[in-house]
């Protein structure tokens, strides 16, 4: 009789095999069928592999619960695939053949099995019966001497939590308060996911939220306590419903080293399992390990540690992969351990002298309490005995596989040989999958670095470069980052930028780091671990919690507000933190700090990618610094070439508009000036040096300062320009041609203004009369900087009230759009429309006309000088 059913469908992709295993394991554990879970998972894995990998079709898995056991059906859409006849072992092939192994396993492990056909589907099913137990006994262990009983504290505290259908805590007992530090009022109403640090299990979708939906669940995870640290617990979950039909989950939790209080008794040792029909021992792990490996490395490693643990009846298992230089091992998969804390942690290959301190040789430790630290990965886990074996390919160390148990003396050389045999069979598949993963990572890293280089090369702004550095690392490489900059060798590192993937945590991390001495600016390449932030964060969280708990009788609201930000910050920076130097031009210009949240580690490939990024970022940051410094110097020098300000002239309106061509330039080859000479006279000039840039600007400075000095000596306009011509020629190779309009202006008592003008090769000044006519106000003469002996003369012009004198550089008249040019005539046409306008309005209208004449940005410097005589009364 069928008492329950569960079904799921899986796509024809490699990762579906791991997902199917997880589905069957969770379903059977929820039904309380722990005795047959492992066999069911092995058989399901092989049958789903046949469907989704070999046949390339969808697979449907159906689990049926009966009074005596469980029936699992796996259907695919490849009905014409040949199926061996039951009872003919020879037809099934050997375990090393690609096909037929799933059916061989069914024959070896299942009580009954078979194959059903439809026109579109093939359905393989197997039945697993529950072992008979004495009446009234679910499971029992033998009597043990007191010294062999599990170790527990003086008083065992069992936290009892009740979680509603939404995953929210609605009950929290006194033992939970003692274990985790939170009073009931503070946690009731919060989701359990806020406190639970769920272990990462690659290839499965089971998390805390999914586990709470299962009818029964048992295992290890972490609870983040009030002090910010994660306490490892062993938990048993039971799904119940009240009289109104409302479901909830009751959770019992104890400290992980006291798991014996809740843990289901251990399985029957592997040696007592059923044998195959031919009388030979059918070790499920050895048969299973020969099946086609999952497509993903994480799925393969996780399956390996699970089967290794089951094969040696251990409490935990772990697999580490060696780095390229074979000096360190990196934790990549584990079961029965707090994997969230251990994943990507690194340990040395040679941990000590002798064969037992090296991962290159098999090793058996009877009691880790007798040799503390012999296996650093197991420190603080409660494991006592362990067997480890190397994974080698062609004599090269590629990894290490280990199985551990809580009881001492569990393993001997015989178990080491069995585990080594399994490791030898899986080593090549692991190395192949690892190389495939590395190739994908390197391709992704190359794309990442190319994009990063393009982004960093696209800006020379220091602040934008800092922001780009942080945004490229978070969350791609790290959970948070901080950038320190060093102005010069005598300066201390300065915290310049902080970023976290959760923006609400940025201020807390910035406040924490500002109170911590920055890391030493060591130029040694590579990432180095920086423990200070995590240590300070935990201490601050602990002090805050203790102060808050000391508020006896205070409301819960005060407690929560007092510890919330500190605990959140401690959790955010409580994982591994590394520092990479930013080295450019043989100098440390800063540090890039990357961090992970509580108990997380960086994988080696990520650190190598971060090191590549830091080199590119350092050069971009130093380029931005140099550009900023040179821009500041250039702008300061350029500003020194501009007139300090225009004088106020009674009876004359003056307006100047100046635009230098080129990004970041304030001064180019064009220049203007207006200055008092004395005796009521004012000198004015507008000029254009051949070319643009620094060399032209140098001649600009020479011309402007020389004009002022010579004019104030009382020299006439022609004499001033002749001496300036000689000074320019004295510059030799640095000299430049110069066109210059120079004049002296004297306002008259009748409201007019008298001008004496010399136009040396410059665009002629234009005079706008009140009647709207426009005429040149001077005649052309030779430019400066070409010949030594110049004979220049000055012309006298009288501006009547209402007249305007417009002076421009050739950047205005030579404004182009395709083959069209504004020219002198076009400028005169625009000026005729300016009758009655002030000097400022005239200059603005001319500039608008120039800008609208062409759509491209100006390629030449432009200067406009407009002077208007309004008369005795402003009109």
From TrEMBL:
Location of the PAS domain: 160-190
Keyword entries, A-Z: Hydrolase
GO MF term (any one): phosphatase activity
Domain of life, per lineage: Bacteria
Matching SUPFAM superfamilies: GAF domain-like, PP2C-like, PYP-like sensor domain (PAS domain)
UniProt cross-references to Pfam families, sorted A to Z: GAF, GAF_3, HATPase_c_2, PAS, SpoIIE
Example of a GO biological process term: regulation of DNA-templated transcription
InterPro entries named among the record's database cross-references: Bact_Sigma-Reg (IPR052016), GAF (IPR003018), GAF-like_dom_sf (IPR029016), HATPase_C_sf (IPR036890), HATPase_dom (IPR003594), PAS (IPR000014), PAS-like_dom_sf (IPR035965), PAS_fold (IPR013767)
Identification of the protein by name: Regulatory protein
């Amino acid at each position: 009789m069928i008492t329950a059913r569960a079904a799921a469908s899986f796509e024809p992709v490699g990762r579906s095999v791991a997902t199917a295993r997880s589905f069957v394991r969770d379903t059977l554990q929820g039904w309380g069928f722990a005795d047959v879970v492992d066999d069911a998972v092995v058989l399901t894995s092989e049958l789903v592999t046949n469907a989704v990998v070999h046949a390339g079709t969808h697979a449907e898995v159906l689990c049926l619960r009966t009074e005596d056991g469980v029936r699992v059906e796996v259907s695919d859409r490849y009905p014409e695939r040949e199926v061996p006849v039951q009872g003919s072992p020879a037809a099934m092939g050997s375990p090393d053949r690609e096909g037929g192994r799933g059916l061989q396993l069914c024959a070896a492990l299942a009580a009954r099995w078979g194959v059903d056909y439809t026109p579109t589907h093939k359905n393989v099913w197997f039945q697993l019966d529950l072992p008979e137990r004495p009446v009234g006994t679910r499971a029992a262990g033998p009597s043990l001497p007191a010294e062999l009983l599990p170790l527990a504290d003086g008083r065992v505290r069992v936290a009892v939590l009740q979680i509603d259908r939404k995953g929210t805590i609605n009950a929290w007992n006194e033992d939970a308060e003692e274990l985790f530090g939170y009073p009931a009022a503070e946690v009731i109403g919060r989701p359990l996911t806020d406190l639970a640090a769920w272990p990462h299990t690659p290839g499965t979708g089971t998390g805390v939220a999914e586990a709470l939906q299962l009818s029964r669940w048992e295992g290890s995870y972490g609870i983040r306590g009030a002090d910010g640290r994660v306490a490892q617990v062993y938990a048993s979950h039971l799904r119940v419903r009240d009289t109104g039909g409302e479901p909830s989950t009751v959770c019992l939790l104890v400290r992980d080293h006291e798991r014996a209080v809740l843990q289901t008794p251990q399985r029957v040792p592997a040696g007592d399992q059923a044998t195959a029909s031919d009388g030979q021992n059918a070790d499920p792990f050895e048969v299973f390990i020969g099946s086609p490996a999952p497509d993903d490395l994480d799925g393969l490693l996780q399956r390996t540690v699970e089967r290794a643990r089951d094969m040696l009846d251990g409490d935990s298992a772990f697999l580490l992969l060696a780095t390229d230089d074979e000096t360190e091992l990196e934790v990549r998969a584990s079961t029965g351990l707090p994997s969230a804390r251990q994943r990507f942690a690194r340990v040395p290959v040679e941990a000590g002298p002798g064969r037992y301190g090296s991962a290159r040789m098999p090793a058996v430790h009877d009691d880790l309490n007798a040799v503390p630290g012999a296996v650093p990965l197991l420190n603080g886990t409660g494991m006592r005995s362990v067997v480890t074996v190397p994974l080698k390919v062609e004599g090269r160390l590629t990894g290490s596989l280990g199985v551990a148990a809580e009881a001492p003396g569990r393993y001997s050389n015989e178990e080491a040989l069995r585990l080594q045999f399994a490791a030898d069979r899986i080593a090549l598949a692991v190395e192949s999958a690892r190389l495939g993963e590395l190739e994908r990572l390197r391709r992704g890293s190359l794309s990442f670095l190319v994009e990063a280089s393009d982004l960093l090369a696209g800006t020379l702004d220091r602040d934008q470069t800092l922001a780009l550095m942080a945004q490229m690392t978070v969350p791609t490489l790290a959970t948070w980052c901080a950038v320190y900059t060093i102005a010069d060798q005598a300066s201390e590192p300065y915290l310049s930028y902080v970023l976290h993937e959760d923006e609400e945590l940025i201020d807390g991390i910035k406040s924490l780091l500002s109170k911590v001495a920055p890391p030493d600016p060591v130029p040694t390449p590579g990432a180095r671990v920086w423990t200070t932030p995590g240590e300070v964060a935990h201490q601050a969280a602990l002090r805050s919690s203790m102060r808050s708990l000391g508020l006896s009788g205070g409301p819960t609201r005060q407690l929560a507000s007092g510890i919330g930000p500190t605990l959140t910050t401690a959790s955010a920076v409580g994982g591994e933190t590394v520092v990479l130097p930013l080295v450019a031009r043989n100098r440390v210009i800063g540090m890039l700090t990357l961090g992970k949240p509580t108990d997380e580690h960086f994988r080696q490939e990520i650190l190598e990618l971060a090191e590549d990024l830091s080199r590119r970022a350092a050069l971009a940051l130093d380029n931005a610094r140099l550009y900023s410094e040179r821009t500041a110097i250039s702008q300061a020098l350029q500003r020194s070439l501009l007139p300090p300000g225009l004088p106020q002239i009674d009876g004359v309106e003056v307006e100047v508009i100046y635009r230098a061509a080129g990004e970041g330039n304030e001064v180019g080859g064009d220049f203007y000036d207006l200055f008092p000479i004395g005796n009521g006279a004012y000198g004015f000039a507008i000029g254009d040096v051949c070319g643009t840039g620094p060399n032209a600007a140098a001649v600009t400075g020479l011309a402007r300062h020389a004009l002022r000095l010579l004019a104030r000596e009382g020299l006439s306009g022609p004499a001033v320009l002749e001496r300036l011509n000689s000074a320019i020629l004295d510059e030799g190779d640095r000299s430049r041609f110069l066109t210059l309009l120079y004049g002296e202006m004297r306002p008259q008592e009748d409201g007019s203004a008298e001008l004496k003008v010399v136009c040396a090769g410059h665009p002629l000044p234009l005079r706008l009369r009140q009647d709207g006519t426009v005429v040149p106000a001077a005649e052309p003469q030779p430019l400066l900087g070409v010949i030594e002996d110049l004979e220049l003369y000055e012309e006298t012009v009288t501006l009547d009230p209402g007249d305007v004198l417009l002076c421009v550089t050739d950047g205005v008249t030579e404004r182009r759009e395709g083959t069209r040019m504004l020219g002198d005539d076009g400028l005169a046409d625009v000026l005729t429309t300016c009758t009655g306008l002030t000097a400022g309005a005239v200059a603005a209208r001319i500039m608008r006309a120039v800008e609208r004449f062409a759509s491209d940005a100006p390629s030449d410097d432009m200067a406009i000088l407009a002077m208007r005589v309004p008369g005795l009364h402003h009109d």
